[in-house]
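Example record for the data management plan.
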Amino acid sequence: MVFLSSSGRAIMGDDSVMNPDFIINHKFPEVFPTFAALFSIGLTSQLKYLPGFTFDPRLLLHGQQYIEIYKPLPSNCSLQNKSSIVGLHDKGKATIIEVEVLSYVKETGEPLCMNRTTIYLRGAGGFPKSSKPYSVSKYPRDQTSSKPPRTQPFAVHEERTQPSQALLYRLSGDYNPLHSDPMVAEVAGFSRPILHGLCTLGFAIRAIIKTICNGDASLIKAISGRFLLHVYPGETLITEMWLEGLRII
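Corresponding structural encoding:
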């Protein structure tokens, strides 16, 4: 699974040789930071069981992902996940749900990481018993989002995705047919299957580690990404980076 996630997420770019630091070497396998997002990957399949919600899963979109990493991710352990809904917003023709998942090492109870996933459900808004658009959140609205500065970026990294990128990343466990089935993609309003947002995020984090962190993935403590536009497999991603103290925007 570590191999598949690393390959599907960010190694099948222009590099002709896979980076062994994020797959396996003679000492130990090193886990890519955004692998933590897979711990909550089954959430979308459980949303249909929420009481009072009716929506077409083909119209579900991943809006934002926030990850806090409390310790280096192990390559082999049992996890225990605790999930809760921390935000619910009625947007009229859509609903936004924020789900938080805390992941622990099962044997010790030691906290490993936290995922906060924002999911956009088109066609599921307009709560009937609400006199005005309902909106509640455990966190400030813009706590995990940043606007790019208007200055020139500190660094720029360009990398081409592969035409099969979405199918390879799908093997990590995200089986949403939006990324593999042309008919589902058409219903959702796209000309063909799109790339997973988390795969795009993986490309960005890999660019940061390679360009600014000198290959040291342990420097990544928190990750936030908002998915504003879709990416088609085969397109080129340009990652622009700005330094703001210890943060990289």
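Summary line stored alongside the record: The CA atoms of residues 156 and 240 lie 5 Å apart.
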